[in-house]
Design goal:
The complex is a heterodimer. Chain A is mainly α. Chain A is 61% helix and 0% strand. Chain A is globular, with a radius of gyration of 18 Å. The chains are: A mainly alpha, B alpha+beta.
Chain lengths: 195, 558
Amino acid sequence: MPPDSRQIPRSDADLIGCSQTEPEEFTELFRRHAPEIQRYVTRRLGSGVLNGSGADDIVAETFLLAFRQRDRYDPSQADARPWLYGICTNLIGRQRRAEIRQYRAFARTGGVSVTESFTDRVDDRLSAANASPLVAAALAGMSAKLRDPLLLAAWGGLSYEEIAVALGVPVGTVRSRLSRARSKLRKTLPQEPQS
Amino acid sequence: MNEMDQLSRFGDDVPLGVTPRAEQMFRTALDNELSPGGRVEPRSPAGIVSRGLAGLRAARPGWRYAVALPAAAALAAGLFVAVQPSGAQAMTVQLLANRAAAAALAQPNLSAGQWIYQVKEWQTPRPPRAGVPNHNVESGWMTADGRITYGGAGIIGNPIFPYNKIDSLPRDPAKLLAYFRSLDPVKSDNNSAVEYSQIDSMLFGMVLPSWLEAEMFHALALIPTIQVKDHVTDIAGRSGVAFVLPETKQSEKAEIILDAADYHLLADAHWGNPSAPSPDIETAILKEYPVAQLGSTQPGISSPSAAELAAEKIDYYQQYLYYTPKINSVTPGQWLYRELSADGKEQKIWATADDSAQAEYVNGTLTVCQRTAPCAASEQWLMPAGPNFTLIYPQYPRLTKAEIQQLGKLPAAQRMAKVDKLLRPNGTLPTLPAYPEPLLAKLNTYATGCTNVRGDCNAVNVAANVLTGYGNYPSLDASWFLALADVPGAGLRSITDTAGNQDLEFTFPAADGVTGILVNATLLDKGDVQYEGYIRNGQQTLVLDQTTVSGPGVQPAS
């Protein structure tokens, strides 16, 4: 633990430790990370009529499962995000039909379905919008073994080591799955001159 | 812009935030947990989820159907009518269902853990651009229950429907549909789509027992909006006949294509635009047959042994792990503190993760021995023989604390590109074979001093050595356990070890080496894979505890 840890806010690990005896402390973990987890789940499952409340369920279940397993939390992991992402990735796995449907819809519409219920701003879509349906189609055609580490990296912003923690596989496995996923994705996208 | 940037932008306008509903659900669930008697003790991951929020879904119908009709009764009721193909007869939904069901019933019944080899092809109608394919052929392996997948097999590789619940499914197509509707988490009013997609994913995501596959076709025929389409051709050019689910406001048009001659499953298609000439995405099963083991492409049904089923269970939980492993992705030189029990006697020892150095207290003095030093000759190495640590756990570059801090300041979109830059290794690192058969062959090439070479004694000894002596715990890949299950004569039994744990013992007949490898059975049932030790000459060597420490002689903080 770094010597200056007393001056920074309590780590997730400290929080989880406290929640063993003060369960209410766990709501702070929800406050910290639920927004990010919900965003991640929504990007994977969408917010359409069929999927929207599914995302809510998964967010709630993620934190409920985490709460029940808090006594098994590795206190050396200061940041709980890999743990939480691991649990929610697992739960998303059970909704993979909704997830695939979401990517397919995205591939079809050119990228409005994820966001349409949140915002009407489709005019300022990114310059990459043309490629987005291809990304969606690639994600739909990818196995979960490859898609999970890929999206944990790209959307969860997790490092290789954090992904390894989240998915419970060796870093080397993360590395090789990620590289396979990336090459799969790359093959789907238009070739560009390397910068 | 590279592919990770493209991916980062995908959906990046989804706002950061939690919905009031999700928050309410969590808080209510937490209150339930904390109220006396409110907690339901989870037994399995599936149980956790299905029961976890039960109180919040009061309106949901229950899971169970109490009584299942025996298959014979269903047959006697005349549900399954085999009708010979006849070109002259107009195809109807009912006729197609009858023929498909008859074809399904002619298939052999497989057990849940049976390995299946699968080759599938997918295609989208998007015209190929430079370097952009619009179709792909993928092959791989899956277990019949769809839980474990390697390569491109299976829909996605997650449990689609728990196989152990299959026997309690109603053997009546109308009740089956009602049950599928009850599974819909959002209680959509689009019943046809809900029923169809459950059937679709079960047909294509797993290999069902023949009675259930037959029932599925009868159930499809009962979906009110379902139609039949004769004379279709799948993307592989095979002629077929299809069940069609027409498009509604909430769901897209979809097809399940069956072979026109023998009515086996050919392809699964989903339309974006229902009047388009071809589906948005079509996935055709080119090959699908049982094989004797993972990695084999030779057809063969081999009912998995108890050892193999246990290995598959380990594989499943490694893929969908709930728990953070205690010791994971450590560097080779990381010191570990270990408490061992050899034949009931406890021993405290320090060793590096790759067992290149060991230390223990002898007469009150800490002695450290490097494997390269003269003292090594008299040392009892935890890892006496086997592949190098880095061959099992390839060491890719790691981020420094400073680098991680810097990354945290970057926008998420830039972060991955930066990470990739920092971690890109110079070429791929050597590893062991990934699939059980070649892995077993490779492990047998290490000399461990045993004589029953044909009994794979070297591979068994190496596995015990690696599990005991290397620190990266418990994430030794499940393919090792699958390989061990393929050792001639390998078996499985339940024992209580000398530390009092309930273990599964993988047993091996090789008498001159390790005869048993122990995995904690209680934890495995909860989804946690924990190696406990091995048995040699009837004596147990157990790893009671191990934890990372800063150096030799350092006691872990309790």
